[in-house]
Design brief:
This protein is mostly helical. It is built from ten helices and two strands; from the N terminus they run H-H-H-E-E-H-H-H-H-H-H-H. It has helices spanning about 5-25, 40-70, 75-85, 105-110, 115-130, 140-165, 170-195, 200-240, 240-245, 250-259; strands spanning about 90, 100. Strand 1 (about 90) and strand 2 (about 100) form a beta hairpin. Its main location: membrane.
Length: about 260
């Protein structure tokens, strides 16, 4: 079976899973995405204003990638589908809320944080419209936490670890796990800014919001890191040409020459 056919099979599988999540699980969403209408108007507008420039620059980055290397479109779709599926899996947390993975670390490592800003924001838009997961007024806030802060952290951590140690799988694991954790830290900050506690203000409110998700989010971040490493291993085995094109792995001929 050709590599292209394997790639299409992977996207098809992701599509079936996504369809099941949309149609087969029609349950109310009480997830960590900030729900529609929850933020005060001034904060909803503020986060939209903050997120929009990243999205615009991300569109330019995405356009450059697809024009320079059209063969990477399939891998872009896979990164977006990976984020959609993982971030739609809601795990029950305390107080009746939910935690979930984010899936943004993989795309940030592959294509950079700006491109992942676009993919992550589109994922959040479709989830808001199809799954009632998040919302349109809160899209700016959710995009900043999951599609901007998380991917930028993943990208920086990956390259820092590669430069310091050269251990790629550890870099992949930590970039995915920390992107997950940072998403929820940023969300907790957003909620604390919008709803400071009467006693203790921002700090007390942040401690409350962050503590709600700490029990489930830490093991989820570790699990997401391990899953991302497995997907990375699969890509190295079946899609090495794309990773070579992105300069994330060396060509085997180069490796053999250097031995």
């Amino acid at each position: 079976m050709s590599l292209k056919k394997r790639g299409w099979m992977s996207l098809t599988l992701m599509g079936f899973i996504s369809f099941y999540l949309v149609v087969g699980l029609p349950k109310p969403a009480y997830a960590m995405h900030i729900m529609e209408g929850f933020l005060p108007v001034q904060w909803a507008v503020f986060w939209w204003v903050v997120a929009l420039p990243f999205f615009v620059f991300g569109l330019r980055s995405l356009t450059r990638i697809t024009q320079a290397n059209p063969e990477l479109k399939l891998l872009l779709g896979l990164a977006g589908a990976f984020t959609f599926v993982l971030s739609a899996l809601k795990i029950p947390s305390v107080t009746g809320s939910c935690s979930h993975p984010t899936g943004t670390g993989l795309g940030a490592v592959l294509f950079g944080p700006l491109t992942m800003t676009v993919l992550g924001t589109l994922v959040l838009l479709f989830q808001a419209l199809l799954l009632a997961h998040g919302g349109l007024t809160t899209l700016g806030a959710n995009a900043f936490s999951m599609a901007i802060a998380g991917p930028f952290a993943a990208y920086w951590i990956y390259h820092l670890i590669i430069r310091c140690s050269g251990k790629q799988r550890i870099a992949i694991f930590l970039s995915a796990a920390i992107a997950n954790l940072l998403t929820y830290i940023i969300t907790s900050i957003q909620l604390a800014l919008a709803f400071p506690a009467p006693v203790g203000g921002f700090i007390a409110s942040f401690t409350k919001f962050a503590g709600i998700f700490a029990i489930t989010q830490v093991p989820l971040a570790i699990s997401e890191g391990l899953l991302t490493v497995l997907v990375w291993n699969w890509l190295q085995s079946y899609n090495p040409q794309e990773l070579e094109l992105l300069k994330l792995i060396k060509r085997e001929t180069e490796s053999n020459e250097s031995v």
